[in-house]
């Protein structure tokens, strides 16, 4: 394994875990709710999956999620 990668591995592992946790929560929320502030389920699925690196899920949680 490359020495540079080994140096960054302790930082990368928590970021990857956080990214997939946020993605999982967001997908769960999209599939379990029927109403959204803006858009519909299909639009938010595309935004979240294409913007998977934190941006898509965060956008959904800020502007797409309807308060319960």
Structure description:
- The chain is mainly alpha-helical and 68 residues long.
- The chain has one domain (3-64).
- It is 74% helix and 0% strand.
- It has 3 helices and no strands.
- The longest helix is centred in the N-terminal third of the chain and has 30 residues, at 3-32.
- The chain is elongated.
- Count of runs of 4 or more consecutive helical residues: 3
What percent strand? Answer: under 5%
The helix/strand class is mainly alpha
First-last Cα distance: 47 Å
**Low-pLDDT runs:** none
The Cα radius of gyration reads 15 Å
Largest sheet: none
Number of strands: 0
The tally of structural domains comes to: 1
Name the average pLDDT. Answer: 84
The SSE order reads HHH
**How helix-rich are the residues, as a percent range?**
over 70%
Which of globular, elongated, flat, extended, rod-shaped describes the shape?
elongated
Considering the chains and any ligands shown, give keywords for the structure.
68 residues; mainly alpha; 0% strand
Describe this structure in a few short sentences.
This protein is mainly α and 68 residues long. It has one domain (3-64).
How do the strands and helices of this protein lay out in sequence?
Layout: H1 3-32, H2 41-50, H3 55-64
Helix pairs in contact: 1-2, 1-3, 2-3
């Amino acid at each position: 394994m490359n020495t540079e990668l080994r140096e960054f591995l302790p930082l990368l592992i928590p970021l990857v875990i956080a990214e997939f946790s946020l993605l999982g929560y967001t997908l769960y929320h999209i599939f379990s709710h029927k109403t959204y502030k803006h858009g519909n389920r299909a639009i938010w699925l595309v935004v979240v999956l294409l913007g998977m690196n934190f941006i898509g899920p965060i956008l959904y949680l800020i502007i797409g999620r309807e308060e319960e």
